[in-house]
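hey m, so remember when u said the tokens were messed up on ur end? i reran from scratch. heres the input so u can diff it against urs
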Amino acid sequence: KQWYQRRVAITAGGHVDDVQSVKFFPSNKVLLTGGSDMSVKIWSVEDGSCPVTLTGHKRGITALGMIERGKEVVSSSLDGTIKLWVCGTQQCSTTISPQSGAVNHIEILDQSAVSSSSKLVMSVTETGLLAVHSLQDSKLISQFQHSSELTACTAVSQHLLVAGSASGDIITLDIRDCSKPISVQKRNNFAVTSLSSHEQRVWCGQNDGECYTISTSPDTTSDTTLLCDTTLCGGDCEAIFSVVAKSGIVSTSARDRIIRRYEV
């Protein structure tokens, strides 16, 4: 099922260039945004005010993450850095530099089974590096080098990671040993633009407008041919910018400026 919500509740202006990433705080009353203007902003959804602007990146923001209930937030940038911000003080407490070109995407990892004292962030870069760092001390935990640019990533579980590439590859890895992937699969040669995991399934958005889901169980990751469980219709070849899967609802945004929601 697909439907559209056309009513605009509030319009807020503040970024002076394109908004590249948006996340709601757990309360759903506060919004986090990152833009090509190199800033990260925190907004009130109720009145549209922007009480916090975080600056320090030297190029545009590519992705955002949130620690626990939002006391700290994480941003990545085309400047090749990842920054951890303390919302209360509006200060950057940690800067991570993978030294591998622009950081295209990040994902905060639930690592209670790996390290109880450290919050981890996974990043993918334009040079094909997937890296996992500690946000506590910037220490490199694990890494994988792919042959082409990595454009998206998600965590399926505490150990299982999935990344997508500009050449259409979908790579499955185990964080305990990222030196060799569990599998490298592809549907076609179009770039993977977004990945979202929910209940052991990964939803993939591509530059050709395709949005589909794959299973990450061992029985379906042993071959190079990508087996798709479900494919969503409606994009009409317009590039998918973002996919979010949660509680039986999959939401996509695309180049045609339409946000689509599907019951799955």
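this time it looks ok to me. The CA atoms of residues 36 and 60 lie 4 Å apart. if urs says something different then somethings off w ur setup not the seq
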